[in-house]
Specification:
There is one protein chain. This protein has eleven helices and 19 strands. By secondary structure, the chain is an alpha/beta fold. It has two domains: about 200 residues, Spore Coat Polysaccharide Biosynthesis Protein SpsA, Chain A (Alpha-Beta Complex); about 160 residues, 2-C-methyl-D-erythritol 2,4-cyclodiphosphate synthase (60s Ribosomal Protein L30, Chain: A), CATH 3.30.1330.50. It is elongated. The chain binds magnesium ion. The site of magnesium ion has 4 residues, from β13 and α7.
């Protein structure tokens, strides 16, 4: 067992990264960025314990994809690091940011070779441009650009971070606390992924896999007298509506499950539990919009949807075109990629007796292509 723990910080909000996909979920081949970066560093540190700090809402989607420890991040980088350090049992800790995607194995080796030389070991780059501070040119030899990963003594780092001051890296906290810092040469290629345009410059990152993923969804709701009927986002002229916790738009519910299925993100009950009063009588179009946002957030682009409404009543044909265009606009795709079909059960079963109706949906998605836009 190693005396070192690797902490990876992946809980950031990626607010400066202006695309619908959250930076951590951009795909490198099939792997989300957080997994790719962790595995890349792990290759140089096969024996170490790994702790990943992630946003609390994302943890249920992260843990099934990896075998390392995942802890809840905080509102700031420093709070996320403090949370992760509570779990560290080793005397040394290496901390890196997921956004530093292309850390070179040689840099990891240099850090390990200097372990224990000071309280914190820090990769730093020289500055070759002229540096002006407060309108005065300063000696650039006195300036360093600090990088991660950094290798620190766990107990000193833990105590250094008890301060209320927000530090942008560990070594600044350790030095302010009175600890020692040792610089090693950094790596120009280990740039930080901050803006969307940065990613194409990072040569270690291969493009997302060109796969299409398909999911299915199925839902049934009984009719209820005196309620308005909304189906596939369209108001239907009908003496009955749906008995349901939400507005009962059974077509949208099946479609949400198909989308979540295609992206392997669970099901509608996980996303919008019917025990949650926030969803009582909610417009299902709002649920679909949130589902679409979620798919985008997790790195997917929606390709198409196909819906089969199984109903003895009402008649669907007069509404098909409006259903297509309404769903297409909610999915942010052209109408040509949404299909609505209707069938009956030839008067068999509960649908045949006009007690309710059922919907089957299929949807397909692919990874967001950050390389070619
Ligand atoms: Mg339902």
């Amino acid at each position: 067992m190693s005396d070192l723990t690797l902490v990876l910080l992946a809980a950031g909000n990626s607010t400066r990264f202006k695309i619908p996909v959250k930076k951590q979920w951009l795909r490198i081949g099939h792997d989300p960025l957080w997994l790719y970066v962790t595995n890349r560093i792990k290759e140089s540190l096969p024996e170490v314990t790994i702790i990943l700090s992630a946003h609390a809402n994302e943890i249920p989607f992260i843990t099934p994809l990896c075998d390392f420890r995942v802890v809840s991040g905080g509102d700031t980088r420093q709070q996320s690091l403090k949370n992760a350090l509570k779990e560290v049992k080793t005397p040394y800790v290496m901390v890196s940011d997921i956004a530093r995607a292309c850390v070179d194995p040689e840099l990891i080796k240099r850090l390990i070779a200097h372990q224990g030389v000071a309280d914190t070991i820090v990769p730093a780059l020289e500055v070759h441009d002229t540096v002006v501070y407060n309108n005065e040119t300063i000696t650039r030899e006195h300036v360093k650009r600090i990088q991660t990963p950094q290798l620190s003594r766990t107990d000193i780092l833990r105590r250094a971070l008890e301060s209320d001051i927000e530090y942008t890296d560990e070594s600044s906290a350790v030095v302010a606390y009175g600890g020692t810092r040792h610089f090693i040469p950094g790596d120009e290629r280990a740039a930080k992924l901050t803006l969307a345009g940065d990613i194409t410059a990072l040569e270690c990152l291969s493009p997302p896999a060109h796969y299409v993923f398909t999911g299915n969804g199925f839902d049934v709701h009984p009719f209820e007298e005196g309620k308005p009927m909304v189906l596939a986002g369209v108001e239907i002229d009908s003496p009955v509506g749906f008995k349901a916790h939400s507005d009962g738009d059974v077509a949208i519910h099946a479609l949400i499950d198909a989308l979540l299925g295609a992206a392997c993100l669970g099901d509608i009950g996980m996303l919008f539990p019917d025990t949650d009063t926030a969803y009582k009588n909610i417009d299902s179009k709002v649920l679909l919009e949130r589902c679409v946002e979620k798919l985008h957030h997790f790195g997917f682009v929606i390709l198409h949807a196909d819906i089969t409404i199984i109903a003895q009543a009402p008649k669907i044909a007069p509404y098909k075109d409006l259903m297509r265009s309404r769903l297409a606009s909610l999915l942010h795709i052209p109408t040509a990629r949404v299909n609505i079909k209707a069938t009956t059960t030839e008067h068999l079963g509960f649908i045949g007796r006009k007690e309710g109706l059922g919907v089957i949906a299929t949807a397909s998605v692919h990874y967001f292509d950050w390389k070619n836009g």
